[in-house]
Design a protein that fits this description.
It comes from Virgibacillus natechei. With 151 residues, the chain is α+β, with helices and mostly antiparallel strands. 19% of the residues lie in helices and 35% in strands.
Length: 151
């Protein structure tokens, strides 16, 4: 089966619509959420080709296929993350600036900043005294590197 578009997201469906269908999952590394063309396998062994026409990234909960009885949903493996919890706007600005200088993408979850684990960032956080913890956690979307130049 070739998937060329995302049908919907499971968060946009009524609970009754979800419960009446057999669910299969495609479990990806978060970095693969940005790949528009890939060969994957569901947790039930069904092979799929993904060839998305629109340029958006996949997200956790995206429904790749749905009929009256079945649905195939995107999920992700947990990532090794640094969960940074700045206490003040100054700490937030300091760490955001430092991460930006290192070109490290971050995501936000409530008051926490999430970055993929990096021992140099861990050392920096210790030096700056900014609270953090290392944690295995699923992210909802890929960490996106944004290109730019210093010129």
């Amino acid at each position: 089966m070739i998937i060329d578009k995302v049908v919907t997201n499971i968060n946009d469906l009524e609970q009754a619509e979800i419960e009446k269908r057999h669910k299969e999952k495609v479990i990806l590394e978060s970095a693969h959420l940005v790949k528009r063309i890939q060969r994957v396998e569901t947790d039930h062994g069904r092979e799929l080709g993904i060839r998305l026409k629109d340029p958006r990234d996949l997200k956790v909960g995206d429904v790749l296929y749905m009929d009256d009885e079945n649905m195939i949903i995107i999920d992700v493996l947990s990532d090794d993350l640094l969960v940074i919890s700045p206490r003040t706007m100054h700490e937030m600005g300091t760490i955001a600036h430092q991460l930006g200088n290192r070109h490290l993408p971050a995501q936000f979850d409530e008051a926490d900043m999430l970055v993929q684990y990096d021992y140099l960032v861990e050392e920096l956080l210790r030096e700056l005294g900014i609270p953090f913890k290392q944690e295995e956690r699923k992210v909802k979307q890929a960490f996106r590197h944004i290109g730019h130049s210093h010129g």
